[in-house]
Here is the input.
Amino acid sequence: MTLVRVCVLLVGVFALAATAGNDMAPLSQYLMSPQAEVALARSAAPAAISKRATIMVLGAHGYAVAQKGQNGFTCIVERGWMQPFGAPNFWNVKMRAPTCYNAAAARTVLVYTFKRTEMALAGASKSQIQDRIVAAIAANALPPPKPSSMAYMMSKSQYLNDGAKAWYPHVMIFTPMVDSANTGASWGADRRLSPVVFDAHDKMPEPWTCFFIPVAHWSDGTPAPLYSGT
Here is the structure.
């Protein structure tokens, strides 16, 4: 094997290693065609909700409105940098998380998606994004979740990470952050056969507690795997 070929192979290996979790991949790997992204965003919630929702798509300069809605919901496809900062593949180019936020969450929780995305597209590292989010929260530059904030994540085509992949269709409830070891217990979360899952929020500084409630069907009405609560 020639020295040139060895060098080329090593460059490829290092590039793959960087993309795997340490650095953002080229932006083109995160983008979709606008039409495909609109359809994927709408699949976050049942059509009775998403067909009248505002739809946003990711472009080179962040998220922009593709279709203006009338019901207060905002549907969006989130990317890898919305994972917990401790995720092993924070920059995963495969992650597609269609989420449809209600009006309360769109005015507060969704702001964090926009902020993280703005920094990612500007070239910030994972640690820089984390530090700046923490600083913005401390300075009251980012809002706490409004009461009744919730979101749908019921897309059959969602890809949350390499382990969970589509996981289960679910709704998310955002509540004010509570510094208590019994937060999950107060909702009966993570108990056998309980439909409520407590998001431990590992290494995520956002100021809320999030509960997942898996449901029995995807947004298109087809049956989903049943979550046992175990």
